[in-house]
Amino acid sequence: MEMKTIPLNDIDLNDRRFCISYPLEDEALTESIREIGIVQPVLLGDASPLIVITGFRRLASAKKLGLENIPAMIRKVRADEALLLSIHDNLGRGLNTVEKAYALEKMIGAGFSRQKIFGVMALLSLKPHEKVLGSFVAIANEGRPLKDFIIRRGASMKSIEYLLKLDAKERRGIISLLSPLHITDSLLREILEMLILIKIRTGAADLRGLRGASDGRDLKARLKKKSYPILSSMEKKFLAMKQRCALPPHIDIKVDPFFEKEYIDILLKIKSENDVRAAIEKLTAILEDGYIRSILELTQG
């Protein structure tokens, strides 16, 4: 194929049937093109107007910069070949979750066999399974708020699957609730698990009383009270017992957060033999006062 200089106006930039890039906006790429131009030519389909096969982000940057011409190669290919070219062209840079979803959803729409789709899933480091495929198709068909949330948070598939169990209104609410907060994906999963539990018990993921949480842990604590009222009561009793023990800074007593384990953890920070003696003396005192027994009775039901 011969590289040509093509006027941007000769290209149908609105035809995105082969586009899997998300988002199209790429500031780093735009700055690169501003500095040195488009290094790798885009690939266009031979039609009138010309259609884009690969290079959607480069073209978006070119349009933003007001370029009139771009380097391109023109190729006559079938629609299914063009889609595979688009997917394989992007494999080298690594696709995000939404882009993987677009690739698989477009393959289904183009009528590819499951064998071919599962082959591409393997290339995308995905388990070739119908359930996994269904989850990615669901992502592709979601609105921009969820897609942006997935990209921004780097959400794991487990977190995404929890989000997909909520209805559209509930998803919008939780995304709005979480957007200002800095939370890890593991904390996100815990929060979503509790919301799903509330939905199972009451029929809806009730977000009342959750607005204004100072951080992810505050939000988790509020949700815990809503989803585990008995658990919250037990936690309150445990903290009261711990307070009565008057533990020094080098001794701590911990229980399983969900009170599912029958044992307790006693943590000691020891710097000397005297610290050991003092810890034994303190633990003996709270043992004789019955506090250890009361905590064990709480954990063992």
Describe this structure in words.
With 301 residues, the chain is of the alpha/beta class. Among the domains are: 143-227; 231-299, no CATH class. The chain contains 14 helices and seven strands. The protein has helices at residues 27-36, 56-65, 79-91, 97-109, 114-123, 130-140, 144-153, 157-165, 168-178, 185-202, 216-227, 229-245, 273-288, 291-299; strands at residues 3-7, 11-12, 42-45, 50-54, 69-75, 251-254, 265-268. Strand 3 and strand 4 (50-54) form a beta hairpin. The termini are far apart. 24% of the residues are buried.
Key terms for this structure?
301 residues, alpha/beta, two-stranded antiparallel sheet
Describe the structure concisely.
The chain has 14 helices and 7 strands. By secondary structure, the protein is α/β, with parallel strands linked by helices. A 5-stranded mixed β-sheet has the order 1-5-3-4-2. Strands 6-7 form a two-stranded antiparallel ribbon.
Write the layout of secondary structure elements.
Elements: E1 3-7, E2 11-12, H1 27-36, E3 42-45, E4 50-54, H2 56-65, E5 69-75, H3 79-91, H4 97-109, H5 114-123, H6 130-140, H7 144-153, H8 157-165, H9 168-178, H10 185-202, H11 216-227, H12 229-245, E6 251-254, E7 265-268, H13 273-288, H14 291-299
Parallel strand pairs: 2-4, 3-5
Antiparallel strand pairs: 1-5, 3-4, 6-7
Helix pairs in contact: 1-2, 4-5, 4-6, 8-10, 10-11, 11-12, 12-14
